[in-house]
Amino acid sequence: LINFKWNVYGRFYYFILWVLYSIFMCCFLIVSTIPSHKISWNNQAILLTATIIFGFIRFIFEVRQFIHKPIAYIASPWNWFDSFGIYFAIMIGVAQKVFSFLIVLGIMVLAFAHSLHLLLRPTSDSSSVSSWALKNNWTLAFLLVIFSFFTTIY
After folding, report:
1. DSSP characters over 22-86
2. What is the pLDDT confidence band of residue 25, given thresholds at 50, 70 and 90?
3. Cβ neighbours of 31 (radius 10 Å)
4. Nearest CA to 23 among 61, 49, 54?
5. Which pairs count as long-range contacts for 27-33, CB under 8 Å and 24+ apart, including other chains?
6. CA-to-CA distance for 95 and 154, rounded, in angstroms?
7. Chain centroid offset of residue 64 CA
8. What does each C-alpha distance from 37 to 27, 43, 48 come to in angstroms?
9. For residues 97 and 132, what is the distance between their CA atoms, to the nearest angstrom?
10. Which CB contacts under 8 angstroms, 24+ apart, belong to 105-113?
11. How many whole angstroms separate alpha carbon 5 and alpha carbon 11?
């Protein structure tokens, strides 16, 4: 009985749903990814209209699911994923940008720390007063100013 219902009704129904969703996604992707100067205004308007129509059809199917079983619809993890998926995409995008910024900042801090370590390493002079005079050592003065500037900004 189940195989009969699947072969007669279910296969066709879900195939139609898949085709409608695929057309919706193709129209949406074409309109959103191709720059507006490469596609004519007429074609863009047709694709936008098709996207709106197929999106409305998908919305009707979602409303039907909610009306049929509202508690199961709300409790479904797939619907929660649909609701919060955009936030995960935003967080991942921000994390990727922050990660590249932190790599550049880390390289800068490492370069300054290494150069200051080499310039300020202990010498055989054991006096309590340092022999470094910023007037005589322009490299050290420049590095100290630049390092303090960048660490204050970032």
Report:
1. HHHHHHHHHHHHS-TTTS-HHHHHHHHHHHHHHHHHHHHHHHHHHHH-HHHHHH-HHHHHHHHHH
2. very high
3. 19
4. 54
5. 27/51, 27/54, 28/55
6. 17
7. 32
8. 17, 12, 16
9. 40
10. 105/154, 108/150, 109/151, 112/143, 112/146, 112/147, 112/150
11. 9
Place of tokens 């936030």: 87
Mean pLDDT throughout 95-115?
Answer: 87
Which residues 6+ apart lie within 8 Å of 58 measured at CB? 20, 21, 24
Q: How many CB atoms within 10 Å of residue 52? A: 13
Amino acid at 56: F
pLDDT in tens, 113-123: 888 777 777 66
Which pTM was predicted? 0.51
Q: At 15, which amino acid appears?
A: F
Q: Which of 27, 55, 56, 64 is nearest to 43 (CA)?
A: 27
DSSP at 9: I
Count of Cβ atoms closer than 10 Å to residue 24 Cβ: 19
